[in-house]
Amino acid sequence: MRVAALIVAAGRGRRALQSAGTAAPSDSGADETPKQYRQIGGAPMLSHAIKAFSAHEAVTDVLVVIHEGDQERYDGIAAGLEGALDKLRPAVVGGSHRQDSVRSGLEALAADAPDQVLIHDAARPFVDAALIQRVVESLKTTMGALPCLPVTDTLKRSKNGIVTETVDRAGLWRAQTPQGFRFQDILDAHRAAVGLSMNFTDDASIAEWYGLPVAQVEGSEANQKVTTNEDFVLAEARLTGTTRLDGLRVGSGYDVHAFGDGDAVVLGGVSIPHDKALSGHSDADVVLHALTDALLGAIGDGDIGMHFPPSDAQWAGADSAVFITEALRRVTERGGRVINADVTILCEAPKIGPHRDAMRSRIAELLGVTLDRIGVKATTQEGLGAIGRGEGIAAMATVTISLM
């Protein structure tokens, strides 16, 4: 019985280079190494999957599907894989979509076809021998085998940012790889699916469409997919037993503005009715100004005054969201993403409590993170100093970013 492992490593992994909601840079100085070639535990992520399948006694062949521009990167990995070379076939070039890449790999294997094939994503470096064995064992009695884990979180459906219903999670499972099949069956299914407009997100979905029964086998919580920069930090910690503190940066910011004439203040992107307004060249939002400085400080890129000087007329009355957006772009260019932000507002009035959640929501939206990663607090100065006398408002901000 010959069992081939087909490892798909032809993607670009763009999400690992960006923060949520932002585009990955194409001409920046950020490290744009595709994620499968980035280091985890002192070795490229792809190498971990190759070693796992090569070391398994049931696996007779290992074939990796790569991007057309990655041959040199791949050759560097393969040359250092002692003990894996006997099973490792020459890599083949994939296509523009995962489905095309898998089919390219299957066609390459067809010249000397195995009995079974295990199709695995290179972004899952923690596949272990026990999981591989469960899939192989299942294929003795089934045409397809899919490792799954139960969905344990409550599921919601939303529209335009508003939750519309709770989805029943009974019978729902999270699919993993490797997904195993009898070789000729899955090759025939992929060939039949060429040219269809259907969105096949994995090989089990192609098998289902083709009419191949796919059995469920027990997955592994350890077999997590590495997608974002934060995933890389966690993966590094798991493999080395330490936290990659060198990939974490902390920045702080402070801003203060005096009161002037007006009927509202803008704090954290939220307009709050008040008998005065804050005086400044832009909208004088001390919260977003402090956050901007914190973002810039985390990457050592100057301050808000350097990038948005008050002497420049274009910033007169500007919405401070533009400052946050530009600072976040600079973070993203360096391969960073925001982990969390915390703000303290110093003022006697207005009351911050009623507007706290609105500010948190707006800041979370601007930074591309979930609400639970944003803190907004307020305190008075107990009548001390200019803030205590009600002459203005100040804000302090701290931001943590992952910079890989």
From TrEMBL:
Site (described: Positions MEP for the nucleophilic attack): R169, K225
Keyword hit for DNA damage: no
Binding site for a divalent metal cation: D255, H257, H289
Alphabetical UniProt keywords: Isoprene biosynthesis, Lyase, Metal-binding, Multifunctional enzyme, Nucleotidyltransferase, Transferase
Residues that hold 4-CDP-2-C-methyl-D-erythritol 2-phosphate according to the record: D255, V256, H257, H281, S282, D303, I304, G305, T379, T380, Q381, E382, R389
UniProt GO molecular function: 2-C-methyl-D-erythritol 2,4-cyclodiphosphate synthase activity; 2-C-methyl-D-erythritol 4-phosphate cytidylyltransferase activity; metal ion binding
Pathway the protein acts in: Isoprenoid biosynthesis; isopentenyl diphosphate biosynthesis via DXP pathway; isopentenyl diphosphate from 1-deoxy-D-xylulose 5-phosphate: step 2/6; Isoprenoid biosynthesis; isopentenyl diphosphate biosynthesis via DXP pathway; isopentenyl diphosphate from 1-deoxy-D-xylulose 5-phosphate: step 4/6
Region (2-C-methyl-D-erythritol 2,4-cyclodiphosphate synthase): 249-404
Region (2-C-methyl-D-erythritol 4-phosphate cytidylyltransferase): 1-248
Positions of the record's site feature: Transition state stabilizer: R15, K35, H281, T380
GO biological-process terms attached to the record: isopentenyl diphosphate biosynthetic process, methylerythritol 4-phosphate pathway; terpenoid biosynthetic process
Cross-referenced InterPro entries: IspD, IspD/F, IspD/TarI, ISPD_synthase_CS, MECDP_synthase, MECDP_synthase_CS, MECDP_synthase_sf, Nucleotide-diphossugar_trans
Catalysed transformations (reactions): 2-C-methyl-D-erythritol 4-phosphate + CTP + H(+) = 4-CDP-2-C-methyl-D-erythritol + diphosphate; 4-CDP-2-C-methyl-D-erythritol 2-phosphate = 2-C-methyl-D-erythritol 2,4-cyclic diphosphate + CMP
Record EC number: 2.7.7.60, 4.6.1.12
Superkingdom field: Bacteria
PROSITE patterns per record: ISPD (PS01295), ISPF (PS01350)
Cofactor(s) of this protein: a divalent metal cation
Domain called 2-C-methyl-D-erythritol 2,4-cyclodiphosphate synthase: residue spans: 248-401
Family from the record: In the N-terminal section; belongs to the IspD/TarI cytidylyltransferase family. IspD subfamily. Belongs to the IspF family.
Function: Bifunctional enzyme that catalyzes the formation of 4-diphosphocytidyl-2-C-methyl-D-erythritol from CTP and 2-C-methyl-D-erythritol 4-phosphate (MEP) (IspD), and catalyzes the conversion of 4-diphosphocytidyl-2-C-methyl-D-erythritol 2-phosphate (CDP-ME2P) to 2-C-methyl-D-erythritol 2,4-cyclodiphosphate (ME-CPP) with a corresponding release of cytidine 5-monophosphate (CMP) (IspF).
Protein name: Bifunctional enzyme IspD/IspF
Species this chain originates from: Methyloligella halotolerans
Gene: ispDF
